[in-house]
Amino acid sequence: MLRSEELAVLDREIISCRRCPRLVAWREEVARERRASFRDEVYWGRPVPGFGDPEARVVIFGLAPAAHGANRTGRFFTGDRSGDFLFASLHRTGFANQPVSRSKDDGLRLSGLWISAAVRCAPPQNKPTPEERDACLPYAARELELLDAQVIVCLGAFAWDAALRLLGKRPKPKFAHGAECEAGSSVLLGCYHPSQQNTFTGVLTPEMLDTLLSRARQLSGTREGPVS
Question: Which superfamily, per CATH, for 3-220?
Fold first, then answer.
């Protein structure tokens, strides 16, 4: 079976998951009640699978779907402010063919990069419990086994800790923006999360994110070229 086909099988399993009752209830409530600005849209309201280039050597590893972002659109960072910041940087650094992503069918293409997360369902207050994280991490483990990822860019301390748990790294290095550590055959890079709280206050700037993504490209040996 081709790698893309194996990833598609995993996607279907993720999408059908109902392991965590609290997360199932919340993601479906949000999808049912909807935010006023999206009241005419049909929400995804299910677990969100990873996406990108099956031949990726770099993985962006986030926390969880945003309630009115990926939980609405069905694709990580698509249709929210964090995604606006992230995709603009991915475009500038040659990983994406366009700087904005609003929906799953908007033509976005990633090259050399895959986007995933520790938790696949939108959690209340954006805070999964340790039990919910641990129930979901096996999906990321299988995803990484299928991908030829050399570098994992962890967006925020939660994703950093989850990746260290996933790869069995002990003792755990402290999270910081720009932190690097080897874990098995991969290199982890710490990155501040592109949340509005961080980007509006200048904790994370476009230049900082561009520099870190360029470092990920360098470490992975991924060539930069036109993204078709």
Answer: Uracil-DNA glycosylase-like domain (3.40.470.10)
Domain boundaries, the chain: 3-220
Query: Which pLDDT tens digit goes with each residue over 20-74?
Result: 999 999 999 999 999 999 999 999 999 999 999 999 999 999 999 999 999 999 9
Per residue, the 3-state secondary structure of the chain, as one string, reads: CCHHHHHHHHHHHHHCCCCCHHHHHHHHHHHHHCCHHHCCCCCCCCCCCCEECCCCCEEEEECCCCCCCHHHHCCCCCCCHHHHHHHHHHHHCCCECCCCCCCCCCCCCECCEEEEECCCCCCHHHCCCHHHHHHHHHHHHHHHHHCCCCEEEEECHHHHHHHHHHHCCCCCCCCCCCCEEEECCEEEEEECCCCHHHHHCCCCCHHHHHHHHHHHHHHHCCCCCCCC
pLDDT digits (tens, 9 = 90+) for 166-198: 999 999 999 999 999 999 899 999 999 999 999
pTM of the model: 0.95
